[in-house]
Amino acid sequence: MNQPLIIARAEEFVKEQLGQDTTGHDWWHTHRVRSTACEIAEIERADVFICTMAALLHDVADEKLNPSKEAGLLKVHTWLTANLTEEEQIRHIMLIVETMSFSGGGGEPMQTLEGQVVQDADRLDALGAIGIARTFIFSGAKGRPAYDPEVAPREESLQKEYRDYSKGTAVNHFYEKLLKLKFLMNTAYGRKLAEERHDFMLNFLDQFYKEWNQGR
């Protein structure tokens, strides 16, 4: 199996699927997740090829970007069966993609080291400066305000609540999801990378509230 060729095909497929996305789930998000997953995989001694493929394909199946979760998963499975011959690799990649979603914090735990690596890489891209930028991009795309002091953050527990984009604000999303991610990292190296990004977000929020309340 020519792994570099298959990876290149996957890259082109993902660019076709996500190249026009304006919600923060575009090709460059995927590219960063893939790069971070490879970095973590090297440190944690995971299968780099499996991590690479799952990282590249994870958002193609995202239910936020498809008519349904099932439709997204079918799209990924169809591509994999057309491009990979080893059934175990297909099964492993699909298992990771199926389990990737945050789902309000209530998703199933990853069953393999490779899945833990890719999930950590995806969560890291929701943290730090990049995570802040993506949060405001996504909220703007969904018509949510940046901040409203009269709207309190929700305690997210059910997937239905988490996917209700009509409520909430960008700043509330920090408390509903982003600031929880550091404590949900799977790998030791992922936790190390999350620390700095988590602290950066806390500093951002401090400055945000300082400026919001200036002169009051």
TrEMBL record:
<dbReference type="InterPro" id="IPR006674">
    <property type="entry name" value="HD_domain"/>
</dbReference>
<protein>
    <submittedName>
        <fullName>Phosphohydrolase</fullName>
    </submittedName>
</protein>
<dbReference type="InterPro" id="IPR003607">
    <property type="entry name" value="HD/PDEase_dom"/>
</dbReference>
<feature type="domain" description="HD/PDEase">
    <location>
        <begin position="22"/>
        <end position="136"/>
    </location>
</feature>
<dbReference type="Pfam" id="PF01966">
    <property type="entry name" value="HD"/>
</dbReference>
